[in-house]
Amino acid sequence: MHLSRDVVLLITHSADFFTIDRVAEALSKKGVQPFRLDTDKFPLQVQLTAHFDKYKNYHTIEYNNQSISTEQVQAVWMRRIWEPELSKELVPKFREACIRESKATLDSFWDSLKEARWIDDLQRINYASNKLRQLRIASEVGFVIPQTLITNKAQAAREFFVQVNGKMVSKLLTTLSHSMEPTSFFLYTSTVKEEDLQDADSLRYCPMVFQEQIPKQQELRVVYVNGNVFVGALNADMYAEAKVDWRKPGVEVGAWQHHQLPDEVVRRLQAFMGKFGLSFGSLDFILTPSGEYVFLEVNPVGEWGMLEKDLYLPISSAIANTLLQTDKIPISQD
């Protein structure tokens, strides 16, 4: 089945639900056809063909009995890119080659859509995903940030532990593969105890981020969509102290509360996102007992479904509206 001229491509994976469904529904209500592309189903269940000649270049893609051409796509929502599901019977070398070639083919497909409006462009997402760059720019626009150390030197980590009076957390600079089980000390932001640093020589294999542990009144998930701000708050005393990172399993349904950011914080947030040229981002802040807002990080493809579900915030509608705008978002040079 061929879809209409006005198509919005939704890039995700087959296990994704709720957020992808809500955005697809919002687009349909606006009279635009969504096309869901589950990247883990390529190449086994998704057929992609690239056409190049001296007159024009275009791609066609077929999935779930639907077919589109890149010429039909007016906008793209970059929700998730997943590794392909391939047979475990494939020998490792052939499997690696299939994954590599599939990724290269998809990269060509993304490039063929450069004239469409993206939320957000992959280059901007990758640029904004650098946590050290985030901290630098957050500081430049006026956000308060935690004292931070990134090192692969055990002694430096021990000295920083003393500097922050033993109130320290650790995290990774990058997101781990979705295939890793959530049992590692390194998966989430975790409290560091003095005994944890006794074996810190293993840092020489993998540098880590260490930050001062900020006192919390509330933790905030702030969702930015093209200048609009949606906020959910969790009271710090609602879950066990050991859960330094609310993204660990255990946050109860209904725990999220509405929260209003001060105008000055909103202005800094808009300046921060403008530096990256992003139209979307999920940001984490801590509100301290003294009323200070401390920036932690931004995820350019972060989660927000719990805020729409629990607080009825119209995030999916805001994303759909942004996808259907015709102007492109300029990128600032910081």
Main sheet record: 5 strands, antiparallel
Q: Taking all residues together, what is the mean pLDDT?
A: 86
Strand content: 25-35%
Radius of gyration: 22 Å
Shape: globular
Order of helices and strands: EHEEEEEHEHHEHEEEEEEHEEHH
Q: Total strand count, please?
A: 16
Helix content: 25-40%
Catalogue the unreliable spans: 176-187
SS summary, helix count: 8
* End-to-end C-alpha gap: 46 Å
What structural category characterises the helix and strand content? alpha+beta
Report strand order across the widest sheet: 14-13-12-15-16
Blueprint of the fold:
Elements: E1 7-12, H1 19-29, E2 33-38, E3 47-52, E4 57-63, E5 66-69, E6 73-78, H2 92-112, E7 117-119, H3 122-128, H4 131-140, E8 148-151, H5 154-163, E9 168-171, E10 190-192, E11 208-212, E12 218-225, E13 228-235, E14 257-258, H6 263-276, E15 280-287, E16 293-299, H7 305-311, H8 315-323
Parallel strand pairs: 1-2, 1-6, 6-7
Antiparallel strand pairs: 3-4, 4-5, 8-11, 9-10, 9-11, 12-13, 12-15, 13-14, 15-16
Helix pairs in contact: 1-8
Pfam families: ATPgraspMvdD
Organism: Calothrix parietina FACHB-288
Protein name: MvdC family ATP-grasp ribosomal peptide maturase
What does this protein look like?
The chain is α+β, with helices and mostly antiparallel strands and 334 residues long. Helices cover 27% and strands 26% of the residues. The chain has a 5-stranded antiparallel β-sheet, with helices on both faces. The protein has a 4-stranded parallel β-sheet with strand order 2-1-6-7, with helices on one face. A 4-stranded antiparallel β-sheet has the order 8-11-9-10, with helices on one face. Helix 1 packs across helix 8. The longest helix is centred in the N-terminal third of the chain and has 21 residues. The protein starts with 6 loop residues before the first strand and ends in an 11-residue tail after the last helix.
